Amino acid sequence: MHNDNSISNSTGAAKKPNMIMKYNATKGSVDTMDKKTENYTVARRCIRWPLVVFYSLLNIGGLNAQIIFQENTSIKKTRLVFLKTLARQLMQEQIEYRWTLDCLPKQIKFRLNEYCNIRRPNVGEIQRVREASGRCTFCDHSKDRKATKVCTNCARLICRDHIIETCPDCFEAS
C-alpha cells in the first residue's frame, strides 16, 4: 500500500492517491481520541520521552477499556466514574495483600480498611486458624515463653505478660 502509486477512483478529477484517501478517512479518529483523553489524563509534566509514551499508553488503554466495557455490558458510565472504579479494582488485590503484612503500621491498616472495607476476621476465626502454641512474638528468645493466645488484629502469638485485657467496647473505641 505504501509503495503503491494507485489512484483512487472515488476522487474523480482530483485524482488523489489511495494513500491520501486512507489517511483522510482515519485522521479524525486520532483527534476524537485526543479530545476524550485530555479531560481525564494520567499524564504529568515530564521531559523524558519514555514516560510520555507510557502516560499516552495508559490514557489510550483507559479509553479502550471504557469502550469495550460499554459495548459488552450496555452500561453507560461517565469517564470519571469508570476510571475510578477501574483504578480501585486494579488496586484491590495489592491492598488486600498489604493488609495481611505483619510489619505494616496499625494506622495504615486502618486506612486500608476504611478505603476498601476489608473485613477483619473476628477472634474465633483467628484462633481456629492458629491453635498451635509457640513462642511469644514480643519476648526474647532466651526467655522461651510459650503462648497460645493470638492478637485479634494480626494473629501473632502473645504470652500472658504481653496481653492487654480490654472489654469489647473499649477495644472498638481504640
TrEMBL record:
Residues 11-65 form the PiggyBac transposable element-derived protein domain. It comes from the Eukaryota. Pfam families: DDE_Tnp_1_7 (PF13843). This is PiggyBac transposable element-derived protein domain-containing protein. The lineage of its organism: Eukaryota, Metazoa, Ecdysozoa, Arthropoda, Hexapoda.
